[in-house]
């Protein structure tokens, strides 16, 4: 190792582990910087620290840094439903938050192009930045998040045909997700272009279907399950939402949407049943207020934590 190289490495200190091929020639210090797993803000901060460290060397007049990153291997979990109005987006957001609270590095993609609701549920409508042609997700409750709802004016109709929705999905999926190890993708209801594009181009590790217990919802959920199976995406779980209502005044339990339908359907179709979510006022009010229940400490948070744990179990089984 040359004396100049030793000077560069010594100046870098604990940052030397990310640097390779350091060289000093004619007053110009150059090196290759490994930025794998870092988002745009972290990359910029690391670059500033390295430049400051190297220009402090008397022999250095200029610094040139080349960056490279290994392509991240992420587990993509698609959360879908056969029809709208079953609470799929609420489930997606809260599972993402629950996974983050379990110590996982999570990204949430709001792929419901025509009806984006994650900015409201996650309480963050900030417009994401564009850095090096990549959209940089915003953060909320320990989760990185991107939604078309952050890129358009509130209340604006998205009147796009199939190719445009596919392009929008690509920008969200290929955003700067940094060191996120799991991407939870909140799909639009049904079996359309967005679902097909996601499965063909990004191949999720598994799909989760959300349904209410009623027969009509389950009929549509069956169609969504059939699509995932035809595209060789394993359906790793079925979640029954709005499963029972407890009167806040008398405590009486009722089942406005029926009971046990999703669990029975999962059994018939040989799909893991991940659990059920009751129809409760706290889940609705917290979601409308932009505070996912999974971020709290009550019974609702515990429900989503159990669902996230079961989901990870099935993801690991599907990968084995």
Summarize the model shown:
With about 325 residues, the chain is α/β, with parallel strands linked by helices.
CATH architecture of the largest domain: 3-Layer(aba) Sandwich
Give the distance, in angstroms, between the N- and C-terminal Cα atoms: 44 Å
Number of domains: 2
Poorly predicted tracts of residues: none
Order of strands, widest sheet = 8-9-5-10-4-11-12-15
Radius of gyration: 23 Å
Instruction: Write down how many β-strands occur, each being a DSSP E stretch of 2 or more residues.
Output: 15
Helicity level, as a percent range?
Answer: 25-40%
What would CATH call the homologous superfamily of the largest domain? P-loop containing nucleotide triphosphate hydrolases
Instruction: Give the averaged pLDDT, no decimals.
Output: 88
CATH hierarchy class name of the largest domain: Alpha Beta
What amount of the residues lies in strands?
15-25%
Structure classification: alpha/beta
CATH topology of the largest domain: Rossmann fold
3D shape: elongated
Kindly list the characteristics that best describe this protein.
alpha/beta; Alpha-Beta Plaits; 2 domains; 3-stranded mixed beta sheet; Rossmann fold; 320 residues
Give a description of the structure.
The mean pLDDT is 88. The strands form four sheets. The protein has an eight-stranded mixed beta sheet with strand order 8-9-5-10-4-11-12-15, with helices on both faces. The chain has a three-stranded mixed beta sheet with strand order 1-2-3, covered by helices on one side. The chain has a two-stranded antiparallel ribbon with strand order 6-7. It has helices at 3-12, 40-55, 88-101, 118-121, 162-173, 193-201, 215-230, 261-268, 281-288, 299-319; strands at residues 19-25, 28-34, 62-68, 75-80, 106-110, 129-131, 134-136, 138-140, 143-147, 182-186, 206-211, 235-241, 245-246, 253-254, 273-277. The radius of gyration is 23 Å and the shape is elongated. The protein is α/β, with parallel strands linked by helices and 320 residues long. It has two domains: 3-68, 2-Layer Sandwich (Alpha-Beta Plaits); 75-319, Rossmann fold (3-Layer(aba) Sandwich). It has ten helices and 15 strands. α3 (88-101) crosses α10 (299-319) and α5 (162-173) packs across α6.
């Amino acid at each position: 190792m040359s004396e100049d190289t030793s000077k560069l490495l010594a100046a870098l200190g604990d940052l030397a582990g990310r640097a390779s091929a350091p060289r000093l020639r004619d007053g110009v210090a150059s090196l290759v910087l490994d930025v794998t797993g870092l988002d745009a803000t972290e990359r910029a901060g690391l670059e500033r620290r390295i430049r400051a460290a190297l220009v402090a060397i008397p022999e250095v007049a200029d610094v040139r840094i080349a960056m490279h990153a290994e392509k991240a291997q992420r587990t993509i979990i698609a959360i879908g439903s056969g029809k709208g109005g079953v609470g799929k987006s609420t489930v997606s957001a809260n599972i993402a938050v629950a996974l983050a609270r379990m110590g996982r590095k999570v990204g949430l993609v709001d792929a419901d192009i025509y009806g984006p609701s994650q900015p409201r549920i996650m309480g963050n409508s900030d417009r994401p930045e564009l850095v090096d042609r990549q959209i940089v997700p915003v953060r909320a409750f320990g989760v990185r998040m991107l939604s078309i709802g952050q890129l358009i004016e509130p209340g604006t109709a998205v009147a796009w045909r199939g190719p445009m929705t596919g392009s929008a999905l690509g920008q969200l999926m290929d955003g700067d997700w940094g060191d996120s190890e799991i991407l939870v993708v909140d799909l639009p209801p049904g079996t359309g272009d967005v679902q097909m594009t996601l499965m063909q181009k990004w191949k999720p590790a598994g799909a989760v279907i959300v349904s209410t217990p009623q027969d009509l919802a389950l009929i549509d959920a069956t169609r969504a399950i059939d699509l995932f199976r035809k595209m060789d995406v394993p359906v790793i779980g079925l979640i029954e939402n709005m499963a029972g209502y407890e009167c806040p005044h008398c405590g009486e339990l009722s089942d406005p949407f029926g009971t046990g339908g999703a669990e029975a359907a999962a059994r018939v179709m040989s799909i893991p049943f991940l659990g059920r979510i009751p129809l409760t006022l706290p889940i609705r009010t917290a979601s409308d207020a932009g505070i996912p229940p999974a971020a709290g400490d009550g019974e609702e948070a515990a429900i989503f934590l159990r669902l996230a744990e079961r989901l990870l179990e099935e993801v690991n089984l599907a990968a084995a």
